[in-house]
């Protein structure tokens, strides 16, 4: 119950209940504590189940251009978010048949079960509907409680992984606490299982705080745990560089550097002001990029923002890029990209493909931060006397941001940036 207010404030704020609460119920005692949601499915704008189903032909091939246009207008209806996201994140080629996708799905589920069994041999609690929040191994790498860890080993990979499980457990308890979904231990443990198995496989990154915030919506939207894992895997392929931690740097600093370069180009006045305040490295935007604005939006609005972003960033080659890096090279769009092919790209990605400027402009999230800064441009210029003030001004935006407007603004900034840095 920590962080939730008392009954009185709940009663006072009840009036704004929407139908969305049926999809992502908030614990009653937390209602006063979470930002209000702006997103509402709108008929004629939001991608509905009926429209979604009619975008597949008789073989099951998806008209992705049609779907992207719709998502751009009003997001995805909560009842189909999970299946749509699988495509947006590149789990499936939209031009595959239903039969092909079914085969891939069964193969991936089998693969996941094998990995899970591997992990269960070491830590039997995994997959049991329960999870642990206590340390599993001591500093010497030996199991603390032999009933929890079934093997004795000094294998570095195993010991490091066991150490991560403790941190994952602590973070799972704190993830989206206000949602009724996580009141049940079995549902928390689904998040724990997915993150733990991911950490077992990604030896480079393992687990870093913030990955729980990216994974949680997928756990809620995608019922089958293996399917959910593969979706998270795809999401991480886009974002994992941000989570790369070394003794001296965080991966996300690369994106912050790009942000600095963009701001310097599109709004030199604001950039120089921030530099004067010693904020030229944009560290205050760290969290926005790491967890993709999860703290700035309500749960439902984050989902809306993410599907808008992923729709705009959509690239039909994305799935081959990951499944088969060599194949992606040969399939990559060449100079002669015609209009029909371009319709299969999201709006943001389309500009990159047209201009061939892949390096600096790879993530819409960076331009989104720029758009957020622009909405606060005046206040930062006149009121901020230090970085703390900037943080405070940006903290005030919670619940006042409109996902669709912010994305539109981000696209404008992208265009401005591309114009200004164009080779003559
Ligand atoms: C989809 O696949 C079919 C069969 O392989 C192919 O003929 C068609 O050109 C593909 N369409 C697109 C848009 O790639
Ligand atoms: C727990 O997860 C299951 C399966 O996804 C879901 O049907 C159920 O509603 C969840 N529990 C709560 C309290 O939301
Ligand atoms: C970018 O350049 C194009 C063509 O020169 C122009 O039409 C457009 O208005 C410019 N956009 C911005 C945001 O500066």
Automatic annotation (TrEMBL):
GO terms for molecular function: GTPase activator activity. It comes from the Eukaryota. Residues 75-313 form the Rab-GAP TBC domain. InterPro entries: Rab-GAP-TBC_dom, Rab-GAP_TBC_sf. Pfam families: RabGAP-TBC. PANTHER family: TBC1 DOMAIN FAMILY MEMBER 15-LIKE ISOFORM X1 (PTHR22957:SF533), TBC1 DOMAIN FAMILY MEMBER GTPASE-ACTIVATING PROTEIN (PTHR22957). This is Putative Rab-GTPase-TBC domain-containing protein. It comes from Medicago truncatula. The lineage of its organism: Eukaryota, Viridiplantae, Streptophyta, Embryophyta, Tracheophyta.
């Amino acid at each position: 119950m920590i962080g939730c207010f008392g009954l009185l404030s709940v009663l006072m704020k009840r009036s704004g209940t929407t139908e969305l609460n049926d999809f992502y119920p908030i614990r009653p005692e937390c209602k006063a504590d979470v930002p209000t949601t702006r997103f509402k499915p709108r008929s004629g704008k939001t991608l509905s189940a009926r429209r979604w189903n009619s975008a597949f032909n008789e073989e099951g091939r998806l008209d992705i251009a049609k779907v992207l246009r719709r998502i751009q207008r009003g997001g995805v209806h909560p009842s189909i978010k999970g299946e749509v996201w699988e495509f947006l994140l590149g789990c499936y080629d939209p031009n595959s048949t239903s039969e092909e996708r079914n085969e891939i799905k069964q193969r991936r589920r089998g693969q996941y079960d094998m990995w899970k069994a591997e992990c269960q041999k070491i830590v039997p609690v995994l997959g049991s509907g329960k999870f642990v929040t206590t340390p599993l191994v001591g500093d010497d790498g030996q199991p603390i409680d032999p009933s929890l860890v079934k093997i004795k080993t000094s294998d570095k990979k195993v010991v490091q992984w066991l150490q991560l499980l403790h941190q994952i457990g602590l973070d799972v308890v704190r993830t989206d606490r206000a949602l009724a979904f996580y009141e049940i231990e079995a549902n928390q443990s689904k998040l724990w299982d997915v993150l733990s198995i991911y950490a077992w496989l990604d030896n480079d990154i393992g687990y870093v705080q913030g990955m729980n915030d990216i994974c949680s919506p997928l756990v809620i939207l995608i019922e089958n745990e293996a399917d959910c894992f593969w979706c998270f895997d795809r999401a991480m392929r886009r974002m994992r560089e941000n989570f790369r931690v070394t003794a001296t740097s965080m991966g996300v600093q690369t994106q912050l550097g790009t942000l600095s370069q963009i701001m310097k180009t599109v709004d030199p006045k604001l950039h120089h002001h921030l530099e004067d305040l010693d904020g030229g490295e944009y560290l205050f935007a760290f969290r926005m990029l790491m967890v993709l604005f999860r703290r700035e939006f309500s749960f439902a609005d984050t989902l809306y923002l993410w599907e808008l972003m992923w729709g705009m960033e959509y690239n039909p080659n994305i799935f081959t890029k990951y499944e088969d890096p060599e194949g992606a090279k040969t399939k990559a769009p060449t100079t002669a990209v015609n209009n029909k092919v371009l319709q299969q790209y999201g709006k943001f990605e389309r500009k990159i493909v047209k201009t061939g400027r892949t390096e600096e402009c790879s993530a819409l999230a960076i331009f989104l931060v720029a758009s957020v800064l622009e909405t606060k441009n005046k206040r930062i210029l006149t009121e901020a006397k230090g970085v703390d003030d900037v943080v405070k001004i940006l903290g005030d935006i919670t619940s006042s941001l409109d996902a669709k407007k912010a994305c539109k603004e981000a696209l404008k900034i992208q265009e401005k940036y591309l114009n200004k840095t164009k080779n003559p």
